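Worked example (supplementary).
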Amino acid sequence: MELLPFFEWLEASALGEAAKAYGGVFAVVQMFHLLALALLGGTVILGDLRLLGLVMTDVPSETVIRNTQKWFNAALALIAASGIFMSGAVAIKLYYNEMYWAKMTGLGLGIAFVYGVRRPLLLRFEHATINPWALRLLAVTSLIIWFSVAACGRWIGFS
Amino acid sequence: MQARMAPMLNELLLSLAHWLDAMTWSTALHESLYLYAWVESTHVLTLMVFLGMLFIIDLRMLGLIFTEVPASAVAERLDVPMLIGFTVMVATGFILYFAIPVRTTQSLWFRIKVVLLIAAGINALLFRARMKAADGSWDRDPKPPQRLRVAAGLSLALWAGVVMTGRMIAYDWFDCHKQLPYFLYWAAGCVDEMARFE
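After joint prediction of all chains, the assembly is encoded as:
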């Protein structure tokens, strides 16, 4: 599938024009992208560290997962919305950037992992009934995926 | 008096920056192929640890997360990961300053960031004092009293400002070499450019 026309269209679209026209607006959107990064990462780290038994051990892990998942959803929505806006300004450049594709691959994997595996498993079952090593594996996988997405995201600017 | 204090402070800060800038390590770090990028990435990615934990504590104080868990329990349990993140951010922040000292010293954004950091720090200390003084009367309330919600909201706003101004340091809109009004030269500490006005 040839994706370049989509990126060319995006950059020429009203969104791309708006994102390019005002440096100040771009910077403000970028701030929301970073704040959402903090919230998304924070909720992931807290949930996973709880599954690993490293923080909030006196609070049931079901409670921690339920609360963090709610705000993870909000953070993901904000980070995606601000990300789409920002990509409009540099769409064609992104198309040729390897780190961008690494990040998008990781992001797709992360979303599939969260909504296909982590969430259904952890919200539907009592955690005591799940093999403790499965929980640890789940936590470590989640940390690796989201750290990679964030790191690739930062590296787009360097590459 | 005040008019003379600011230039003096600016000159002092600038000479400190020049002194750091003359160091071999400062240049090596700035010109390194990957090290600077790694330090910078660590600084940004640690937002997830420091600011992530802080957001969760503030959201609890606003009654928006972990309402079934006592507020003090959330604050106490997340204190250690938050401080670990904070330590890494401060350490990498100093290294980033050390790599580009002169431009950073004369960056309007960096200066606003430092002021906001101090304000956020004072807010956090007052917050802690209020929490300790509360001796558990509202600890289990899903929604803490208004004065704590205000402090939590202020904390979120101040840290958002820190992130914003931190990101803006990379933009050169208000750098000394640009044509700027006198008060911006003054605020950014562009000593030489100010002298040209006199």
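Two points are worth noting when inspecting this output. Residues 62 and 146 of chain B are 9 Å apart (CA to CA). The mean pLDDT of chain B is 91.
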